[in-house]
Amino acid sequence: MLIVMERDCSAEQLQKVVEKIQKMGFKAHPIPGEVRTAIGVTGNRTPLDPAEFETLSGVESAIAVTKPYKLVSREVKQEDSRICVGPVTIGGTGFVAIAGPCAVESEKQTLEAALAVKDAGAHMLRGGAFKPRTSPYSFQGLGLEGLKILALARRETGLPIVTEAVDDESVGLVEEYADMIQIGARNMQNFQLLKRAGRSKRPVLLKRGMSATLDELLMSAEYILSEGNYNVVLCERGVRTFADHARNTLDLSVVPAVKKRSHLPIFVDPSHGTGIREKVGPLARAALAVGADGVIIEVHPDPDAALSDGPQSLLPGMFADLMRDLGRMAPLVGRAMER
Amino acid sequence: MLIVMERDCSAEQLQKVVEKIQKMGFKAHPIPGEVRTAIGVTGNRTPLDPAEFETLSGVESAIAVTKPYKLVSREVKQEDSRICVGPVTIGGTGFVAIAGPCAVESEKQTLEAALAVKDAGAHMLRGGAFKPRTSPYSFQGLGLEGLKILALARRETGLPIVTEAVDDESVGLVEEYADMIQIGARNMQNFQLLKRAGRSKRPVLLKRGMSATLDELLMSAEYILSEGNYNVVLCERGVRTFADHARNTLDLSVVPAVKKRSHLPIFVDPSHGTGIREKVGPLARAALAVGADGVIIEVHPDPDAALSDGPQSLLPGMFADLMRDLGRMAPLVGRAMER
Amino acid sequence: MLIVMERDCSAEQLQKVVEKIQKMGFKAHPIPGEVRTAIGVTGNRTPLDPAEFETLSGVESAIAVTKPYKLVSREVKQEDSRICVGPVTIGGTGFVAIAGPCAVESEKQTLEAALAVKDAGAHMLRGGAFKPRTSPYSFQGLGLEGLKILALARRETGLPIVTEAVDDESVGLVEEYADMIQIGARNMQNFQLLKRAGRSKRPVLLKRGMSATLDELLMSAEYILSEGNYNVVLCERGVRTFADHARNTLDLSVVPAVKKRSHLPIFVDPSHGTGIREKVGPLARAALAVGADGVIIEVHPDPDAALSDGPQSLLPGMFADLMRDLGRMAPLVGRAMER
Amino acid sequence: MLIVMERDCSAEQLQKVVEKIQKMGFKAHPIPGEVRTAIGVTGNRTPLDPAEFETLSGVESAIAVTKPYKLVSREVKQEDSRICVGPVTIGGTGFVAIAGPCAVESEKQTLEAALAVKDAGAHMLRGGAFKPRTSPYSFQGLGLEGLKILALARRETGLPIVTEAVDDESVGLVEEYADMIQIGARNMQNFQLLKRAGRSKRPVLLKRGMSATLDELLMSAEYILSEGNYNVVLCERGVRTFADHARNTLDLSVVPAVKKRSHLPIFVDPSHGTGIREKVGPLARAALAVGADGVIIEVHPDPDAALSDGPQSLLPGMFADLMRDLGRMAPLVGRAMER
């Protein structure tokens, strides 16, 4: 159920509605919009009667939400959400580029990559300190030390940081050292982690699972919003199919599909989405063209020496060229790429 | 085996090499390039000895081809192939738009669509006269009558025609009435049909099967080339996956992958690739951005009345807007869209 | 629409109903059952009014068929279909084993395999004379010569023959020399071929395409039945997925799903379904356990020398062991394996 | 690296080898076998020199392990592992049936189901207290209260309990109240959870992720073993494909593939694997036939009232029939089903 308040409703009227919802045993989620506020109701197992709310003062209408997801739905919030990460706004008319190494390996490597992507025009820095790896014997990241290096890179470049968290403890650390929490594809349905991220004050970058449907991705986002954190950015990073010419099959048509069903911004990760350096540029351009709000790209000063995902990392020069291309194309699809 | 001739080799020297190959019981495929001619050798089950050929006069080198496909391979021909369909060139620096209704339903509907797509700047007209349909009880196309309508539409608009053939008989008819033969996704491994198309003088548009790997697509093209028809254009039209937000999953990363392995042009079909009208535009823009040589798009003057694939057909006005967008973006990716 | 005749309706009454259907411009398919005859109506685009038929004499009821497929549907025919191939009955309480080499390579190899599988208890012989191969440079089968070898093997062993046809011409030859026409997975949606097989007097073994849904498989069978050939046996042979531990993913749950929706028998091909010799036995046992009507298994006297699919062919001794296992298990699932 | 000790090596010799490994900075995993002990070495990034170990007294040989997984590999341990859960042994010649409701909903429902499955011959009881659900608004399980009900059901029936844990806290509770920890498909690559389970004394039932390759499943098991818990049972529960006739595509050919590569037992879950009650029986029989070590099946006294997965739950009577069938088939595949 979504309760749409009148344009000029008072704070008191809003509060009364919230209280009524709570008294009924449900949860109220006030969603301030540009012209009016709506209140999402969750927790009810069966449909509610609109009349229960439409008779309250200040309420314009009460609308049943037909999708299994509610707070992430366009039905509930028609305007695109804008998510602020430090000075960067995601989800508006800008096209945002996040770049950096797959993993934080050392201060030198991270600073070198950070300065290079900053010079090339990136808006944010990525880099993994906690790395979920298929093998227990692979490099698992530097952990806290990695976070400290990322924080240093932010001081040096001014770029906000996004980095992955993999459990309660690492969410706490990422909250402290970084600007945005990444939930990786393998954890897209780690609901305990999603709930923890939902209680964080930091915005969340939620990657689509390798075989997640769009509805499942949106439901995972709903877990985060339903805990009170509305600052979620979705990210397509390739799905698993029979196709063997790339590491994953990048599903770009999910971008307009997200735009139709949800108000949340959607990014594309052409690095994991293809797994092959030479395809990153073409697919990043395609991501811009298809309507994505940004890209997240792996850049490494020396990919051959990378401890993970070297073959898909761009060299700094390739990334700079790509940024130039994207900057030129952006206005043609109604976007801007200033920093 | 690929035999690369010297730049200034004579026709006689070339002929001697061809004869030697034939005498060994194999097939010779002379492939004239811009600066020199190469000869593909097929039919051998085991590797050949380069020395057998390198000692012939006029031969520069004999190179083992490591891929299962040969004639379609970049190893064999480094320059991009350019395929001429009437006045239209596919595979150069142009970006080619083929458009028209899914099926030819009537003279009126087809002419209306043809004039509309011509006005909007399309380079070629599409329309099915032989329709392979999942159900035997669905509209199967107008057959010969449909081809005659397409020929009429060409006379009215000057646009070359591409239309699907489904068996020997229809290949013969399509050759007679149209400019380019389409082999549909369901027939991508109908090898009898591929061989028949390989003996045609008309260029072929070969669509990727619903679960075909890139190698399988290239091998199917190889069937056509190995029969002597080198004018093949590949087409990505979406693959079948678990994803349910679109009819198929459009695999745009296959475009740079084709470019790397083969000299053949590659198109994208965002209409079948998504199955949803509102996604056709974004994915067509993405196809241009990712490096495709063209798009093939369904346009219907009255989609709601269409006998097949109405929900994915653009209205003429939407198509005109899309063509404008593509025309503006093309120069930024090194393409032109004049007609 | 399905028109169910009364138990004791006369031939004349039946004929009157057929004529009425034809006069309305539709096609009538009388389907004799054990206790009564039904008539399937196809060709109508919109639902028919049951009253039109229920008032005719001899008609018990007229039932709208809700599935896109009609003649193959359980709604239309409730008893399991039994298909006779020479002395062999498929679809009853027997469990039928078809075995033999992937391809007919020589008289010696084929006779050796035929005698071996006969000795082991196989009911029918398989062997390809027309081989659809991914590469134009692979062995494509012996063609007519192969069919003659198969006919010879039948004379020597008494086993009925099933072999693949790939186009009109080969259907004609297979009809002449063999007992059952196989339509391969790659041709499951080659509708011209399906229609040709539908006009044949020979029963058809229709393999599921590599990414065909169950409905698509049933619709392809419907093409054959709608042309008048009701003797169709379906065959699951593995679908294409991301899983890489086997050549294909054998989808055994399709067996009970077919049983629910259709009266046609369903086979399983564990050889193509797994592509790995050592998995053929376990999956053949599973096919029996899950309710399949039979299996089709590749057996080669010398797999390492096979011209195609050697790694998935059983040695004659392995096949004999498997037949013994299946024979012991069959009674436990209500089947018999006598010959 | 795997170090195989001599048959009659002393505890002291073993200890010396372990110490040497630890001094080199690696981890030693002694793996006692029936006739001799082996020591797995993990933690090395580069291959080790066998000579370093083969010169130590008591060492028979040191073998490089070629697979990315080590401790789970057949190379490292040739005999099938046997996992004891209370009085039940998994992985020997027995075929083990775990059954019970999807979720623990109440004491009454759980006890009723527990008694019914016990009467039918089940060896263990399943039931979810912590339910990972796609939607945050779905029933999430009774938590600790559910575990207490399960413990009560064990007291009443004597059946050991397996139940899912979803995070550190719930692992601790499941360890306390139940006999075996289940890691669900969605958490197969929640590596923090795997490591926690690896430090548990309880055996673990690890379900294959929805799009996990066999190698990934084995690597996830490796996470558990590498922390010291060698009691892992794998479980196939269907993978995600395009096929739409069942909830998932049950990949039975993974069973012989696991048997080839690993010594760990493998179960099949035909309830989640198909999602449809009427398919559970056929696929459970197929699981036995294909070589699985057991099945885990959902049984609910009143499926229509179930809070989750009702449509795939068997009624107690159907389960009893199935157990009878399995009991009769088991000896034919070399298994026994006594309790």
Q: In summary, what is this structure?
A:
Chain A contains eleven helices and 14 strands. By secondary structure, the first copy, chain A, is of the alpha/beta class.
Question: Would you identify the CATH architecture of the largest domain in chain A?
Answer: Alpha-Beta Barrel
> Which descriptor suits the 3D outline of chain A?
elongated
Query: Level of helix content of chain A?
Result: 25-40%
State which percent range the strand residues of chain A make up.
Answer: 15-25%
| Mean model confidence by pLDDT of chain A | 93
Identify the most extensive interface between protein chains: A-B, 39 and 39 residues
Tell me the major beta sheet of chain A.
Answer: 8 strands, parallel, barrel
User: Helix tally of chain A?
Assistant: 11
Strand order of the largest sheet of chain A: 7-8-9-10-11-12-13-14
Report how far apart the termini of chain A are: 39 Å
Poorly predicted parts of chain A: none
The total domain count of chain A is 2
Assembly classification: homotetramer
Radius of gyration of chain A over alpha carbons?
21 Å
Question: The CATH topology of the largest domain in chain A is what?
Answer: TIM Barrel
CATH top level label of the largest domain in chain A: Alpha Beta
| CATH homologous superfamily title of the largest domain in chain A | Aldolase class I
